Amino acid sequence: MQEAIASFDFAEYLEKARTRVEDALDASLGPEKPEKLRESMRYSLLAGGKRLRPILCLAACELAGGELEKALPTAVALEMIHTMSLIHDDLPSMDNDDLRRGRPTNHKVYGDAVAILAGDALLTRAFEMVSIRTEGIPSERLLKIIGELSLAAGAPGLVGGQVVDLDCEGKEVDLETLEYIHLHKTGALLKACVTCGALIGGADEKLLEALSIYARGIGLAFQIIDDILDVTASSEVLGKTAGKDLIADKTTYPKLLGLDESRRRADLLVAKAKSALDPWPEKSKPLLALADYITSRDR
Amino acid sequence: MQEAIASFDFAEYLEKARTRVEDALDASLGPEKPEKLRESMRYSLLAGGKRLRPILCLAACELAGGELEKALPTAVALEMIHTMSLIHDDLPSMDNDDLRRGRPTNHKVYGDAVAILAGDALLTRAFEMVSIRTEGIPSERLLKIIGELSLAAGAPGLVGGQVVDLDCEGKEVDLETLEYIHLHKTGALLKACVTCGALIGGADEKLLEALSIYARGIGLAFQIIDDILDVTASSEVLGKTAGKDLIADKTTYPKLLGLDESRRRADLLVAKAKSALDPWPEKSKPLLALADYITSRDR
């Protein structure tokens, strides 16, 4: 098995997947009117980034035995929801961020009103992608995916986590609350990525359960690494304002556990996440490599 | 037929429908966490109002021969989308309104950040209502409804209309642009109300087509009346700031056409809307009465 994994060219896989995703994202926005709205949506949706969420979706679809092509609209939908959350999080009334992926944030370019509306439009478009723009998947399955997306993006997931996060700014926060925030704010959508991809691929309960454990692990690890990078990396490398957690007096893993223990915990979570996929040693190679990629990233 | 219409007790119908809708709205929000988010969502969703959109949905479902009960989650979803648009429209960066339905607007009570997120959560929850909380309707039909909702709420509908509306503030606007704004900002969702209700009820193409004409007519008439009321009614009666179109120097129907011609145009639109339902004289009574109700309202 060790050898088999070694023979899997992750860099090539990542490059190909990213190209597929970029092309699909570029094609996903039709001739929205008015132009300003379309530009604002495209500005943030096509701002680059790791495209981790859509790639996780595609990888889970393939692990379940599905065709990558059929998962593309859902992969795009997941990136649209993620982009919406970034646009709204960056607003002056929330995190008040001027920089994102090395460029001015959406509201800095288009104004607060259009930024809010572009977020709304991307969130809505995500549901259009799955309901109208997906072909060759049974309706019951698409309906399940829409259910997963709605739970992950809304109050039970992303939005709920963001409200708790805002509430905790400047307060003493314990590890349990910190985990609650991340499991909702980041974890719920990451879980939806693999779940929705697997549903497109026709996964059974056993695989869905394993992917759920996998997603929880990489979700938390992802956030711990984010916290670590905020302390250790420069703004130039991150493409967003570094050290802003410290400035905002936000509770982070490094603050609660120290840098070394945070790093150790992230490694442990990734190891656990990977072991959930043990029953599928061959087919899970992309997801295993993605888990490592998440913890070794420097931005 | 005249007599049959006379025998239909619209006041009783409206009262019953409104009670069903209020109960369904009240039950629609589960134990969202954190409490502040739940409160903010409930504050605006349960703020009263005519409940025109959900009632149109229920009436269209019944006209198509469906059971009202099965259309309730979709009716709630439509009101959630409408509520989201009100919360976001009222924000300081948009219309900057302090008063809505006689109470402080959402952001005045919960702050801008929570108001934005409550809107996001309501929009997302709308899709949850249809995808997860609807029973006894074939998946293909629910998927169609989700498609209709996504088009009506997003860039091709409500959000697109709002961006053009904001863009036109303080500018000279012609009748064509004014109609474009209203057909998107208000009309698209009103059309979705009857279309989605009719889909739940299993409507055929002929009925869907007629309802689409009906919705276009009442949608535009509704907006003309809104413009008229902004000029003629007091803030006390409206429950929102009156005269704000004048203050914001917005182009309105009264401004372009005068009050009398605006009123005449609204009446004509309603008459056209009603005649589209001629082939269903008995079953369309609630929708016919709702059309009159819209033009005779004083708030």
TrEMBL record, chains A, B:
Pathway: Isoprenoid biosynthesis; geranyl diphosphate biosynthesis; geranyl diphosphate from dimethylallyl diphosphate and isopentenyl diphosphate: step 1/1
NCBIfam families: FPPsyn, GGPPSynCrtE
UniProt name for this protein: dimethylallyltranstransferase
Cofactor dependency: Mg(2+)
Lineage: superkingdom: Bacteria
Top EC class of this enzyme: transferase
Keywords, comma-separated and alphabetical: Isoprene biosynthesis, Magnesium, Metal-binding, Transferase
An example Gene Ontology biological process: terpenoid biosynthetic process
GO molecular function: dimethylallyltranstransferase activity; metal ion binding
Ranges in a coiled coil: none
Record-stated family: Belongs to the FPP/GGPP synthase family.
Reactions accelerated catalytically: isopentenyl diphosphate + dimethylallyl diphosphate = (2E)-geranyl diphosphate + diphosphate
Database matches in InterPro entries: GGPPSyn_CRT-like, Isoprenoid_synthase_dom_sf, Polyprenyl_synt, Polyprenyl_synt_CS, Prenyl_diphosphate_synthase
Protein EC: 2.5.1.1
Cellular component annotations (GO), alphabetically ordered: cytoplasm
